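Long-time lurker, first post. I've been practising inverse folding by hand and with some scripts of my own, and I keep getting stuck on stretches where the structure tokens seem ambiguous. Below is the full token string for one chain I'm working on. Before anyone asks, I'm not after the true native sequence, just a reasonable design that respects the backbone. If someone could post their per-position residues I'd love to compare against what I wrote down in my notebook.
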């Protein structure tokens, strides 16, 4: 069944790439410095060529290369306040997530770092994947007079969250998710958001592993001999979109190998779908069932899943012949600080501190009434949209450039400014 699904998916992806060429691959509005990227790249293997000789698909336009002197992209979140943040009481902010994980932990740390510059404190609560508990947490904290909320609203619960937030008059933005009507390819945003460029993070991560395979393993990339995997969680749309990106990149490079060499492994059946255990649980059996491959490239749509998949590959003897990447560098940065140099090698990431800044700039403007959900970030709004979604530019972070990345992030809060308005 999985192979049949992979075949059907491959046919759809290849048809879409051939028909659309440069169409938008992920919903969202890029920051002005970043142009809209193609969905699946512009090139695939030339007719008659070996799959191993396929040229790189064109990288998304908003991938920012980290090099000497690099700084975080200069994004204007247009923060307008009615008073100096330290002339008022400290705002109390609630962040409700569906389940804890590496990304939620990293975002909480970043939010509280931004809070030192803008005078707010964040409490994070997890619903432990219980839909009713998610709603209950909103109701309880709203009754306690919380100033604002970041809610991990998703398509599956967005109608109820929108209704409840309106009834309780909550000032809020989405945190780790984006909500919309329509499809992933043609969304109409149902609330403002600042989001990662999920599709293109998956797309670039897959390309990056193919292009850097020889540098990390010391052997040429022979596509016929290397299995390709996306480990994803099929419920949240952000994970689905990241996995779609990885699949599209592989199909653009090796259209004749998609059915035999590429698969999406879903963690939805695991007790905790976003965890190291879940990543290992789906990766191990797939590797064992496919002894024809000499090596593996794996994209994990969540840091914890990628970590588990990488560990599983090491345990199965592929430590030197595998590469694992993910979306979000928090886990890897901690591992590298401890001396790690294993097969979990890189992450596509927009700075979490900059993401937290954007989220809280928007939320503070809603709290203080200097903007409404409809007027927030007008210069970023796409035609035909009621609300704005800002999509952050990102970089591929590996051990080699991680110190440059960390140095740029370290001084970020010193750059935060605001405008006082009536």
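-- Answer (accepted) --
I ran through it position by position. Result:
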């Amino acid at each position: 069944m999985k192979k049949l699904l992979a075949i059907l998916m491959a046919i759809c992806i290849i048809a879409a790439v051939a028909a659309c060429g440069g169409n938008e691959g992920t919903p969202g509005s890029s920051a002005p410095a970043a142009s809209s990227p193609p969905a699946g790249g512009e090139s695939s293997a030339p007719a008659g060529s070996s799959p191993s000789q396929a040229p790189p698909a064109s990288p998304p336009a908003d991938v920012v290369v980290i090099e000497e002197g690099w700084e975080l992209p200069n994004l204007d979140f247009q923060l307008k306040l009615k008073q100096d943040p330290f002339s008022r009481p400290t705002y109390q902010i609630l962040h409700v997530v569906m389940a804890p994980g590496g990304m939620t932990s990293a975002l909480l740390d970043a939010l509280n770092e931004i809070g030192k510059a803008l005078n707010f404190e964040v409490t994070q609560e997890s619903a432990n994947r219980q839909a009713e508990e998610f709603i209950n947490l909103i109701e309880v904290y709203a009754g306690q007079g919380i100033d604002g909320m970041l809610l991990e609203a998703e398509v599956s619960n967005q109608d109820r969250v929108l209704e409840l937030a309106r009834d309780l008059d909550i000032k809020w933005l989405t945190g780790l998710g984006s909500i919309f009507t329509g499809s992933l390819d043609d969304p109409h945003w149902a609330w403002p958001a600042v989001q990662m460029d999920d599709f293109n993070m998956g797309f670039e991560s897959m390309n990056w592993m193919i292009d850097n395979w020889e540098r990390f393993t010391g052997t040429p990339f022979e596509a016929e001999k290397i299995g390709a995997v996306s480990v994803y969680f099929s419920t949240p749309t952000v994970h689905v979109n990241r996995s779609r990106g990885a699949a599209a990149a592989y199909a653009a490079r090796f259209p004749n190998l998609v059915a035999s060499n590429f698969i999406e492994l879903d963690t939805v059946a695991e007790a905790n779908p976003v965890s190291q255990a879940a990543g290992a649980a789906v990766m191990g059996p797939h590797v064992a069932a496919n002894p024809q491959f000499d090596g593996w490239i794996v994209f994990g749509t969540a840091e914890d899943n990628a970590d588990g998949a990488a560990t599983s590959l090491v345990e199965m003897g592929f430590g030197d012949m595998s590469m694992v990447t993910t979306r979000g560098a928090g886990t890897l940065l901690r591992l590298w600080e401890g001396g790690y140099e294993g097969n979990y090698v890189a992450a596509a990431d927009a700075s979490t501190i900059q993401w937290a800044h954007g989220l809280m700039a928007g939320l503070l403007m809603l709290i203080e009434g200097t903007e409404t959900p409809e007027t927030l970030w007008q210069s970023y709004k796409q035609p035909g949209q009621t609300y704005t979604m800002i999509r952050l530019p990102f970089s591929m972070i590996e051990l080699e450039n991680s110190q440059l990345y960390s140095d740029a992030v370290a001084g970020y809060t010193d750059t935060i400014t605001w405008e006082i308005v009536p």
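A couple of notes from the structure itself: The first strand starts at residue 29 and ends at 30. Residues 1-59 have pLDDT under 50 and may be disordered. Happy to go over any region you disagree with.
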